Amino acid sequence: MNKFLIVLIIIVSAVHTNAQSKSEKEVAGVVEQLRKAMVDADSAMLQNLTLSKLSYGHSSGHIDDQNAFVKKIITGKSDFVTLEFANQTISINKNVALVRHQLHAKTNDNGVPGEVHLSVLLIWQKLHGQWKLLARQAVKTQ
């Protein structure tokens, strides 16, 4: 009986671990889609990946809603020439995922070249089987 219980616990743990890994892979995938959509200024993809109630916090303290966030990207007010996410961690609790990473980018905001290095927190919510960005907050790194 004890051996059966131990085997059962191992199997249940393995299934749970694989399910969690699958969710983390899904979230990592939408984060990558967001990164690419920001570089490509892909309006449709940015709209699709974000919720209408998006709260997009900049390191300056300014907060955009979904429309302002998308508009800044597609008009070139926020133009990412390169965009890299490093040291990413993903933590999932039911239908909410917290993603932390460091953002490193070369920009050309309003035609002015620049460089930015930030620490970012993304909050994703799974609705109807799809992960959508609910909130983002960035702070300048030291």
**What would CATH call the architecture?**
Roll
Q: How large a portion of the residues is in β-strands, by DSSP E?
A: over 45%
Could you tell me the CATH topology label: Nuclear Transport Factor 2, Chain: A
Mean pLDDT across the residues is: 90
CATH class: Alpha Beta
Principal-axes geometry comes out as globular
How far apart the termini lie comes to 57 Å
Read across the widest sheet, the strand sequence of neighbours is: 2-1-6-5-4-3
Number of helix segments?
3
Rg value: 18 Å
The biggest beta sheet reads: 6 strands, mixed
Helix content: 25-40%
Structural class: alpha+beta
SSE order, one letter for each helix or strand: HHEEHEEEE
Low-pLDDT stretches are: 11-19
Total domain units: 1
Number of distinct beta strands: 6
Structure description:
- The protein has helices at residues 2-40, 43-49, 66-75; strands at 50-57, 63-64, 80-93, 96-109, 112-127, 130-140.
- It is an alpha+beta fold.
- It has one domain (2-140): Nuclear Transport Factor 2, Chain: A, CATH 3.10.450.50.
- The protein has a 6-stranded mixed beta sheet.
- The radius of gyration is 18 Å and the shape is globular.
